[in-house]
Amino acid sequence: MSGATIEQVNLMLKLYDARREAKLRDARDWYAANFHPQSVEEAMKLCPPGTQQNTYIRMVIGYWEMVASIANRGLIDEELFFENSGEMWVVWEQLKPTIAGWRETFGSKHVMGNLEKCCARFEAWREKRDPGVNAKMRNFFEQLNTAAKAGKSQAAAS
């Protein structure tokens, strides 16, 4: 049985409700389909300041960084949170290749640190439940990204 309180369940529902906001939903859709840079330089080309794409990455990363900070403080039952927040990990995986560059750019080793810390616990939780799942998930998303890049290259060549 979970240790979640009614207050924590209500918080989880509020967090879910915020994810349904139309602009954040658009941003999440764009991020999932398009944000696959391997460096800060690639990210800046993809999402230059002042563009809709830049707004989208700030919305998505900002939302999940905020939610991770709530989870990191123990304000929500971790089991409940992890059972319902797999998208956070996907956002982190797409961001991870750029994180060292962002931290260097901003001069802070803490940039997006809440997300990193929470995702590390999420991976350990998920691996304990289903050994090997993290590697399989990474492989699956790599295949999706490769297929998406190939599709975009073919469309550009047409």
What does this structure look like?
This protein has 158 residues and is an all-alpha fold. 77% of the residues lie in helices and 0% in strands. The chain has 9 helices and no strands. Helix 2 (22-34) crosses helix 4. The longest helix is centred in the last third of the chain and has 25 residues, at 133-157. The model has no long low-confidence stretch (mean pLDDT 93).
Task: Give the tags.
mainly alpha; 158 residues
Helix content: over 70%
Helix/strand/pairing category: mainly alpha
Whole-number total of structural domains = 1
Report the total helices.
Answer: 9
H-E order: HHHHHHHHH
Would you kindly provide a brief summary of this structure?
This protein is mainly α. The chain has helices spanning 6-19, 22-34, 40-46, 52-72, 78-83, 86-95, 99-106, 113-129, 133-157.
